[in-house]
Design brief:
Layout: E1 12-13, E2 21-26, E3 31-34, E4 37-44, E5 52-59, E6 62-68, E7 71-76, E8 81-91, E9 96-106, E10 110-115, E11 120-122, E12 125-133, E13 141-148, E14 151-157, E15 160-166, E16 170-180, E17 185-194, E18 199-201, E19 211-215, E20 231-239, E21 248-255, E22 264-273, E23 293-301, E24 310-319, E25 322-331, E26 337-342, E27 347-354, E28 363-371, E29 377-384, E30 387-395, E31 398-399, E32 406-414, E33 422-433
Parallel strand pairs: 3-9, 11-17
Antiparallel strand pairs: 1-31, 2-4, 4-7, 5-6, 5-8, 8-9, 10-12, 12-15, 13-14, 13-16, 16-17, 18-33, 19-22, 20-21, 21-33, 22-32, 23-28, 23-33, 24-25, 24-32, 25-26, 25-31, 26-27, 28-29, 29-30
């Protein structure tokens, strides 16, 4: 469903070739791991309209695993030693691409940290990736976690850790720990220097100046104010409960059952440039051209999240006649998978990454995006409830009217086939740029 286009605009997509790509989320190149080695990867193809047929893993030039589809998740038992591995995709048109990954397999037990490295310098949001084994508990590792300055900030079940962790600037003492099913534990300290990078806008959910539009099939043309075209939507701020900060904002969507199915509501707030709600109009047009990195970070809650077809979290940037739309949507009733927006072909692209937010509890989403030096859009990563998916997908920008200038953030709710009313709550919504 196209959620971005307003009726008054005709957006011309720059013609640029889409590239095939294999993104390996695990193991990292040059990592030390234990057996079995868990290979997790996704693939795309830009030359075959039929898509990716299958993926496989080569170990020292021998094909050991083949799985159908555009995603791979498999354990490969290997003896201790160094290996040259390759993750490859084959498309339905006879094409193929691959990504090499060098690994060291060890028989030792303990915690093996891929990132960050001890005594390294990181940004205020660091990706912790590690695995653990135990030689004293036959039942194995139950969970892993991260401490920051003696405070436990992340816990994930299982013997693998992949979490985006927010860190204060300066020298920080962190610890990666594993707990086994027998009551035992071990840990590895990781000392870091954290750079104070970026400018952070906080409590955006409570800001004034939100815009809202109802949209429905087949063209998803904007309508406002509510109610319109069978849709009803609203925004109410200063919600004390449910809330994390005591100042959440409630967003609602509903409609006339049977007459307005599959409708959505787009909530958008201008942050930088024109119509800035944060007091940063950049009238001299000197700030936006310097910006290349963006972090969308928010907590969302719904008592009945299963009524949502899709939840969407987007970053938009416009300047010098060029537009950038980093669109990320979590299909819930639509299939529990993350999609990203393809600016070249104006369509949603499945990532192969599961999206299973919790109904009746707070969910934490973080989107990392980048405008590269050549103005291509880079989707860096999506983190949901501490689990990070590294995407590394690029798309070209598109043309916009020359007088457009600004950065906005979107929060969108999609209805189901009956347009059953439901509410969500947004809290601790921040946006960081540099």
């Amino acid at each position: 469903m196209n959620k971005f286009w307003h009726a008054a605009l005709i957006l011309l997509i720059f013609a640029a070739p889409a590239l095939a790509n294999v993104t390996v989320n695990s193991p990292s190149n040059a990592a030390t791991v234990s057996s079995p080695v868990q290979f997790v990867a996704i693939a795309t193809t830009g030359t075959c309209s039929k898509g990716v047929a299958s993926m496989g893993v080569y170990v020292n030039d021998k094909l050991l695993v083949v799985q159908n589809g555009a995603s791979l998740n498999t354990g490969v038992p290997l003896s201790p030693g160094q290996y040259n591995t390759v993750v490859e995709e084959w498309d339905y048109c006879g094409g193929a691409t691959f990504t090499p990954v060098g690994i060291t397999v060890t028989s030792q037990t303990g915690i093996f940290i891929t990132s960050p490295a001890n005594n390294s310098t990181v940004n205020t949001s660091a990706n912790f990736v590690a695995t653990a084994t135990t030689g004293t508990c036959s039942k194995g590792v139950a969970s892993m976690g991260v401490y920051v300055n003696n405070n436990l900030v992340v816990v994930q079940n299982g013997a693998k850790l992949n979490a985006q962790v927010s860190l204060p600037s300066g020298a920080q003492h962190t610890v990666v720990e594993e707990w086994d099913y027998c009551g035992g534990a071990s840990y590895v300290p990781v000392n870091l220097t954290v750079l104070n990078v970026g400018t952070k806008l906080s409590n955006i959910q409570a800001s004034k100046g939100w815009n809202s539009w109802g949209q429905g099939p087949p063209d998803y043309v904007d309508c406002s104010p509510s109610p319109c075209n069978g849709f009803q939507f609203s925004l109410t701020s200063n919600i004390a409960s449910p809330s994390l900060s005591g100042n959440a904002t409630q967003f609602t969507l509903g409609g006339s059952s049977g007459t307005a199915p599959w409708g959505d509501v787009l909530f958008s707030i201008p942050l930088l440039g024109q119509f800035s709600t944060q007091g940063i109009p950049d009238t001299g047009r000197t700030l936006l051209p310097t910006l290349h990195n963006f972090t969308y970070d928010a907590y969302f809650y719904s008592p009945n999240l299963g009524l949502s077809q899709v939840m969407e979290f987007d970053i938009n940037m416009y300047m010098n006649g060029v537009g950038f739309l980093w669109g990320t949507q979590c299909r819930i009733a639509g299939g529990n998978e993350w999609d990203i927006w393809d600016n070249l072909n104006a369509k949603w692209v499945p990532t192969g990454v599961a999206c299973n937010p919790v109904s009746g509890g707070w969910n934490h989403v973080t989107v990392q995006a980048q405008r590269q030096a050549d103005n291509t859009l880079l989707y860096e990563s999506i983190t949901l409830n501490g689990v990070t998916a590294n995407l590394n997908k690029t798309y070209p920008p598109f043309a916009v009217p020359a007088d457009w200038y600004g950065v906005t953030a979107n929060y969108q709710m999609d209805g189901n086939g009956n347009e059953t009313p439901y509410a969500t709550y947004l809290d601790n919504f921040s946006f960081t740029y540099w």
